[in-house]
Amino acid sequence: MPLRLFLIVALVGLWLPADTAEDPAKLSFEADIKPLLTTLCYDCHGEKKAKGGIDLQKFADKRAIQRGALQWQEVQRAVSEREMPPDSAKRKPTEAERERLSNWIAHALDTLDPEDFPKDPGHVVLHRLTRVEYNNTIRDLLGVDNKPADSFPEDAGGGGGFDNNADTLFVPPVMVEKMLTSLGDVLGLAKPEKLFTHKPVDDKPKSQRAAAKAILTDFTQKAFRRPVKEPEVERFVKVYDAAVKKTINHEDAVKLALKTVLVSPSFLYRIEGQRADAKPYEISQHEMAVRLSYFLWATMPDAELFKLADEGKLHDPTVIEAQVTRMLKDPKAKALGSIFVPQWLKTEELRRGRKAPDSSKYPHYNERMRDSMCDEPEVFFNELVAKNRSILDLIDSDYLYVNEDLAKIYDISGVRGNDLREVKRPDDKRGGVLTMAGVLTVTSHPHRTSPVLRGVWVLEQIFNSHPPPPPPNVPALDDKKDGDKKDLTLRQRLEKHRADPTCATCHARIDPLGFALQHYDLMGGWRARDEFGSPIDANGALINGEKFSGIGELRKVLMTRKAEFARGLTTRMLSFALGRGMEFYDRPTINELMKTLDQNGYKIQPLIIGVAKSFPFRYKRNQPVSSPQEVSQ
Amino acid sequence: MSRPSWFISRRTMLRGLGVTMALPFLDAMVPRPLYGADPKVIPRKGPPVRFGVLFFPNGVNPNKWTPAEVGPFTTGLPEQLVPMDKVKSEILVLSQLWNAKCNSGDGHYFKDASFLTSMTINKTVGADINAGGTSIDQLLAAHLGSSTKLPSIELGIEAPAKGVDNNVAITRLYSNHIAWSSAATPMACEIDPRQAFDRLFREGKADDKDKPKGLAPTALTPFDDKSVLDAVMADSQALKIRLGVADQRKLDEYLTSVRDVERRMALELKRSKEPRRVDPLAMKALPALDEQIRNIGRAQRGENHTPQVRLMLDIMLLAFWTDTTRIGTFMFGNSVSGRNFSFLDGVKGGHHDHSHHENNAEKLAGYAKITAWHVEQYAYLVERMSQIKEGSGTLLDNSMILFGSALRDGNAHSPRDLPLLLAGKGGGTIKPGRHIKCKDGTPLANLYGEIAIRMGLQLDSFADSNGQIKELAG
Predict the structure, then answer these.
(1) Whole-number pLDDT of residue B7
(2) Which of A166, A189, A243 sits opposite B227 (nearest CB)?
(3) Is the CB of B357 less than 8 angstroms away from the CB of A269?
């Protein structure tokens, strides 16, 4: 076997759960799985007793289990995470049994027959504007760019890992207070022509009121991003009336009514109407305009999108495609890079100061340097989108975007100034996101690099594969038994760690990926020795004892796994576009998008267009399926 | 003399203290409600009692925390408690309390998010956030908070963590909150001292010379914002009918908050007509703190952030002193905080990293120094509160300031024998200056029951509480 192929085969083993994993497709429910369920589960979750209302015995065959996928994915999780059977159970599974059960369930859920399981677009709950979306929308609505939402509590996020996840966007009382305060500022700063779009013909109260109503009608449509009916506008005109009655002058009364519009849930939330239909239905024209603009621009639709929605054209896939292409050319599309990328690659932790190299040791890490580091992947991605490049450039590219600060770290001469620009890479030490200073810094401790953090980052961010959690309450390593650990290098300590069978399975996956990046110091510079003075050893030893070395070989191996990378990126992008976590029923959409990528030379625009034209982006159903507990009743 | 009525010198004792805690619920198959019966507000006389919580993540060095002796501190304190030495007569060390319901799950999120709820969080990446119940501070705020400008304050110092911790498949949202106004509604921490100060103390906009004069500039103006919110409520009700159940629930969150602010405006309007009962010394301290906030910038990365922490503690102190609120929480950091503490001698690197000490002597030493720094900040607040006169005693005498972490040893992540300190006399019902060793396995929720009754709220039970901690009274 040629060495390279051998290496690839060896590395493939990295992502397999274990060397000896059996193929779940070959297992039979009756012969292999049911006996396990009978001895391990049915005693408490069966016909006789159904603790927590959960009866697993009623699922008589594989099909039934697939039909109950929502509940069984919970079962699978509980089994794989050792939550079930509980400590108190009479009989506990061996590790092999646990793995067999968990893998079989996962496989069964993953290979659903489309006839049994109709397409499901999912349901996104009312979507509160994120802080960035709020700022942008105020900017585009009123021409005021004072970022009022910066005073709101930060959005934490969840679901697919992005802060636009609808479920985790809350409105605490303090936010209502701050909205009221900051909207006062916003309306004070707005130019009069933006606010008073209709002038009263004279000073009479009647014509003033007519003007106020006309202003509010226009404004409410824009602010709510949809057509409005008269009774709706009337409610805001009433605010105007009440203010005038309190002897507030015309203009201030209009402002007060405008403020009310902006505090309304129809502005603060992206609201999609409900239809009396049990089946999935296509969202409305204006809802489609809103989804498109918040996905690509993180702001409200522009006049063209509004117009197309008014004309009823946004259900046409060719129109959607043309619009996405147009929108990606707009400067507002930079939002994609500046919002999606830092949350995907985790560089937002640097930007917000949650992580940083130690200032005493790394005084040249200042705010400007931090911004350069954080800008690089965002600019790289935005250029990738603008130039419709291949997503595989994110793994390996022969070009970089650098400014003077970054060029110093990368040892590139002749770059002056603070603007990032495209340069050819001098050698394969750089290229793609893995070797970017921001990524290498955020995956380090303040004082030293961490092969574990970097290894986990590669698994999670590049492959969307999540190493299982360490077992709870890991016993501390006994110092006396290990001897004085100060004499050991980091690598030797990690090797010791892996000698423990509880740690070995995961760390054998994680550590080699991190060691391949050991030539990069805490801020991403190239080094020959680590921070303890030991010469760099960028060799990775795999579970089966095979070795590989350095970034070059690592990247080549990653390239052979491009489908997994594509799946990871696709999953994240769909999740970001929808503002919700992925569910089992999203798998067909993700598979389709991966096919699109494959057919288009992995270019990114077809992926983005594909997301915008995808079933879950254009459709919705009324309510989420009830929680697993409710289903089981 | 125009002293406010509750400054009147009076020795106060809580009536009914200790006889109200009911037996625990029998374990039932159905999810049981968090509280036995409706909490009952017990009107109390005398100065109000305040409840503050200072939470820190990542646990403590378990070898250098608990005093060997039980009772009064006669010999030296363990290393991590040394910074509280000069105020030790004001503080109780509580040992052997634990938070049983968060024993499962992961090492951090389950523990920290339920520190004040004593319940079990729902493990989720985001779709169904649930902390299991309302936290004790928010329960108190809901029942007792209407007598102050704000029912409670939530302060922090660290930017919230984002996204999902895929290592354990839990949304990092849980890491940012100890205060939950309902099981599904976390209370966001104010992490900017300027904003926290303005929200609590700024009336009108006199100070904001840079900002334009807008309409209805302050949050709590009599007519404008009230009318805005009234109209918004009407609009929302009309909208709600058109929505499905899940969307309605989301809109209800919004409506609850709007109603909350609306009610507060109404109360504030009413209160503004009454004479304010604030210690003139406190009124003098306000502009001084305002000035300090202006002078101290935001801490950068590995820099010493002690000044910023102290600003937050000063804000909490003034909020209590001026009776702007009686309930407050402060988070030194979020779950799994990796904040760089190398500004302390002998500490190299991040908090979480140090807490995973693996019994390494160097790491354990650094870990103890980080904890000691936290205790030092706590002692600062306790000392300042003990110097402020109120009635016949001090502000601290009329307070209960809890300091603690939701796990003991950062290497083991167990919520047993939690590191907890309680300062203040709770209105003269607590005798501090001792180490109380509870019976092994005493629920932390028992302490919350004791705190609640001293605040004036009688709970039949709270979470897994099963009795009293009579030793508090001495």
Answers:
(1) 27
(2) A243
(3) no
Identity of the residue in A156, A166, A469 whose CB atom sits nearest the CB atom of B161? A156
Spatial separation of the C-alpha atoms in residues B103 and B407, rounded to whole Å = 10
H helices of A332-394, in order, are 334-335, 341-345, 348-351, 367-386
**Residue A503: is its pLDDT beyond 90?**
no
Do residue B127 and residue A171 have CB atoms under 8 angstroms apart? no
B360 contacts on A by Cβ (under 8 Å): 479, 485
Closest by Cα among B130, B134, B111, B131 to B55 = B111
Select from B171, B232, B268, B413 the residue whose CB has the most chain A CBs within 10 Å, as the one to mutate to test that interface: B232
Q: Which residues pair with A421 in a beta bridge?
A: A402
Q: How many pairs of residues across A and B have Cβ atoms under 8 Å apart? A: 283
What letter represents residue A531's amino acid? E
The beta-strand segments (E) located in B345-446 are: 389-390, 393-394, 399-404, 420-423, 434-443
B163 to A171: CB separation less than 8 angstroms, yes or no: no
* Cβ contact, residue pair A126, B187, below 8 Å: no
ipTM comes to 0.80
Question: Distance between terminal CA atoms of chain A?
Answer: 56
Which one, of A206, A433, A184, A460, lies nearest residue B204 by Cα?
A184
Contact at CB, A256 and B219, closer than 8 angstroms: no
- The per-residue DSSP string of B286-320 comes to HHHHHHHHHHS-PPPTTS--HHHHHHHHHHHHHHH
Check residue A501 and give its pLDDT: 60
Residue A132: which residues within 8 A CB-CB, separation 6 or more? Answer: A149, A298, A335, A339
pLDDT tens readout for residues B96-125: 999 999 998 888 999 999 999 999 999 888
Residue A203 has pLDDT above 80, yes or no: yes
pLDDT one-digit tens code per residue, A118-140 = 888 988 889 999 999 999 999 99
Per DSSP, the three-state class of B104 is coil
Residue B433's region, left for phi above 0, alpha for psi from -120 to 50, else beta, is: left
Minimum distance, in Å, between the CA of residue B241 and any CA atom of chain A: 10
Between A484-498, A588-602, B7-21, B333-347, the lowest mean confidence (pLDDT) is in: B7-21
Distance CA A400, CA A383 (A): 11
Residue A522 DSSP one-character state: T
Query: Which residue in the set B158, B228, B338 is minimally distant from A263, CB to CB?
Result: B228
B258 — contact with chain A (CB < 8 Å)? yes
For chain B, the C-alpha Rg in angstroms (whole number) is 22
SS3 letters across A98-153: HHHHHHHHHHHHHCCCCCCCCCCCCCCCCEECCHHHHHHHHHHHHCCCCCHHHHCC
Q: Tell me the longest C-alpha to C-alpha distance in chain B.
A: 68
CA–CA distance, B366 with B351 (Å, rounded to integer)? 9
Residue-wise pLDDT for A334-351, tens only, equals 999 999 999 999 999 999
Of B137, B131, B182, which Cα lies nearest the Cα of B155? B137
Contact at CB, A158 and B246, closer than 8 angstroms: no
The Cα B312–Cα B293 span in angstroms is: 10
Residue A514 in tokens: 């991190």
Distance from CA of A177 to the nearest CA of B (A): 6
| Residue B100 touches chain A, beta carbons under 8 Å | no
